[in-house]
Amino acid sequence: MFPRNASETIPPSDSGFTSRISLPARIRANPFVRLAAIWEAFFVALGSLRQNKLRTALTLIGIIVGVTAVIAVVTIIKGLDQTVAQTFSSQGSTVFTISKRPQVITSREDFIKYNRRKPVTQEDAEAITRLCTACWRTGVSVNSIQPAKRGDQKVDAIQVRGVSPPSMFEIDGVTIDAGRFWTESEGAAGGDVCVVGPDVVTNLFPNESIDRAVGQDIWVGGHRYTILGVHQALGKILGLSRDNRVYIPFATYKKRFGVDFSGQSFSPSGVLVVFIQTQSADQLEAAQDQVRTIMRNRRGKTFKDDDDGFALETQEVFLKLYSSATSNIYLVTIGVAAISLVVGGIVVMNIMLVSVTERTKEIGIRKAVGARRNDILTQFLIEAVMVTAIGGVFGVLTGFGTAWLIALAIGFPLLFSAWSAVLGVGVSSIVGVVSGLWPAWRAARLDPIEALRAE
């Protein structure tokens, strides 16, 4: 008696051989045979893509655009993350500041509220120096924008930074490249001396080395200063140079720009900021508590007052602001990429449906010689995944290339991320599975007799 289907086996005969009717089921169950069939399906899919080069290229565009957008933005932002983190952490995790108002204000109401506060004064800085036992170094700083010139060379806008004492250079993370810093006595006497950034030398001393600039005079804000030193390059942050600076003693700043930091008047030429540094990061919290208590007492604040009357900040405020901004960029990019990938998936689905229609007779022949529904389904799914995976690979390459060009133009380090490349190819492959499922199912459901009749 014969079996009712090919998967049944006839009991072995006395000779120990199994009927040949069971062989097809055994062959199909063999994992090596299944692997060979899938491998062959890849070659068939590749041949189909080669036969329709233009259609394949048009299909790839949507996938490439979406993956390129993701890879480029992720790579650029990772490079910016490193640059910003290094910039804002140049003072390290042991420095915080005291000022009248926060360095980042997000609303008009807050600006009005903070402007009503009493200014932070030089006397406040002296009280912190005297009373804070956890504080290692303290200093003051004030900034303004002034024109500068030397002979025929002019700069319309340069940052003038008045600092005291000279240890503020160490708090600021500034090191000398040529020359020297001013001494304590030179700073206290309000000497007309300065330390400049390398951009100042480039602009005012063209074609001259930084050593030649030391000892020369420049005019800043209508006053003459002698260059004692040139500090090492600090680089740019978000396209803005930190080397276009002139450091002068705080006493000189007050004398030359007529600024009153006693707290009796508001200065349009700059806001006083007190810098505090601890010897280690472990002491930072204790120092902040002490400084907050000192400043609240000087302002007559009680425990009922919610507003301290001053801003105590670390560089984390900038990192949080930057992270918040870049997270929004990530969301927008993901949205754009998602739209591109959806459009690309629709294109892939349409192309695969056309391919099913064109290859109806081929499908009928394959089914007639024994191909099952799963075989046809696998074949068309592999074709869809292959075209989207190729688009993902090209998208990764063009994304990295775009990021490299942008980084080269802006001037920040480029960080290639392996996970973003894997994510790009992986997501595009998933798009291929989703978009190819319906055409593959339609192909698998075709009746072989009707398919063979197709022209």
Summarize this, please?
The protein is α+β, with helices and mostly antiparallel strands. The protein has helices at residues 23-29, 31-51, 53-88, 108-115, 122-131, 168-172, 184-188, 198-204, 210-213, 250-257, 284-298, 316-358, 360-368, 373-410, 418-445, 448-453; strands at residues 95-99, 137-150, 153-164, 176-179, 193-196, 217-220, 223-231, 236-237, 240-241, 245-249, 273-277, 311-313.
Polypeptide structure, described:
With 455 residues, the chain is an alpha+beta fold. The protein has two domains: 31-84 and 322-453, no CATH class; 92-314, no CATH class. Helix content is 55%, strand content 15%. A six-stranded mixed beta barrel has the order 2-3-10-5-7-6. It is elongated and about 105 Å long. Mean pLDDT is 79; it is low at 1-23 and 262-269.
